[in-house]
Amino acid sequence: MARLNINGKIHDVEVEPDTPLLWVLREQVGLTGTKYGCGVAACGACSVHVDGVVTRTCTMPVSSFTAEQKIVTIEGLSPDVSHPIQKAWLDLDVPQCGYCQSGQIMAAAALLAANPNPSDADINAEMSNICRCGTYNRIRAAIKQAADTTKRG
Amino acid sequence: MTIAQNLSRRTFLAGSAAATGGLSLGFHVPFAQAQDAATTPEINAWVVIKPDETVVVRVARVEMGQGTLTGLAQLVAEELDADWSKVTTEYPTPGQNVARKRIWGDFQTAGSRGIRGSEDYMRKGAVAARMMLVQAAANEWKVPVGEITTAKGVITHKGSNRTTTYGKVAVAASKLEAPKDVKLRDPKDWTIAGKSVKRLDTAEKLNGKQIYSIDLKLPGMLNAAIKETPYPGGKVKSFDAAKIEKMPGVKKVMQLEDTAVVVVADTWWRAKNALDALEIVWDEGPNASVSSASIAAMLKEGLDAKEAFVGNKAGDVDAALAGAAKKIEAVYSYPYQHHMTMEPMNATAQWTPEKCMVWTATQNAEAALATAVEAAGLPLDKCDVTRLNLGGGFGRRSSSHDFVKQAVLIAKEMPGTPVKLIWSREQDVLHGTFHPTTQCKLVGGLDEKGNVTALRMRISGQSILAALRPQALVNGRDPAQFQGLNAEGPEGQFGYEIPNVLFDHAMRNPPFRPGFWRGVNNNQNAIYLECFVDEMAHAAGQDPLEFRRKMMAKFPKHLAVLNTVAEKAGWGKPAAPGVYRGLAQHMGYGSYVAACAEVSVSDAGELKIHRIVASTDCGHVVNPQQVAAQIEGSFAYGLSALLFGEMTAKNGRMEQENFDTYEVVRMEHMPAVESYPIPSGGFWGGVGEPTIFVAAPAVLNAIFAATGKRIRAVPLKNSDLRKA
Ligand code: FES
Ligand code: FES
Question: Using CA atoms in the order B500, B712, B545, B691, what is the torsion angle rounded to 10 degrees?
Answer without folding.
Answer: 100
